[in-house]
Amino acid sequence: MSTGTAVMADPHVVTCTLAPRFDAVRTAREFARSTLHGWGLGELFDDIALVASELVTNALRHALEPRRSEQAAIAPSYLPMQPGPQQSADDRLPIRISLVHRAPQVVCAVSDPSSAGPIAREPDFVAESGRGLHLVDSFSRSWGWHPLAGAGKVVWAMFEAESEATAGMSVGRHRRSA
Prior knowledge:
alpha+beta; 24% strand
């Protein structure tokens, strides 16, 4: 993994700390792929990777976003590649992705330094962004968020892991055409 560090104390709870850079999304997908394959749940990868990508992207865009005045002075799509002159990387809570496997569910959770909860926008089919939480809702069994003590929040999505009894049935809310 290029920008993250994975931690595993319990083999069914794995966490990866992500660098505040755009390639953190790719790292989150790589982390999800290796973790799910290690658990023998590779069939969940597509749905979990999509949701992880959306949650990490939201954390990068909204939780690490500089103040509006700073952002406008630099560029409309600014995302800090390094901490600013008065901020060190250690002063800011990191973005972390965690996968938790408690049969028959898998939870994908992304924590970030913002205490503001995610807000699903009304779908605007001509907008370039704003549909991420609708995708999270469509591809997971359920999702939500919780504030963290002190500062920050965790946004989570739950998935049903296939068992032999449910193999071949759609276990998420997203319905794929056959």
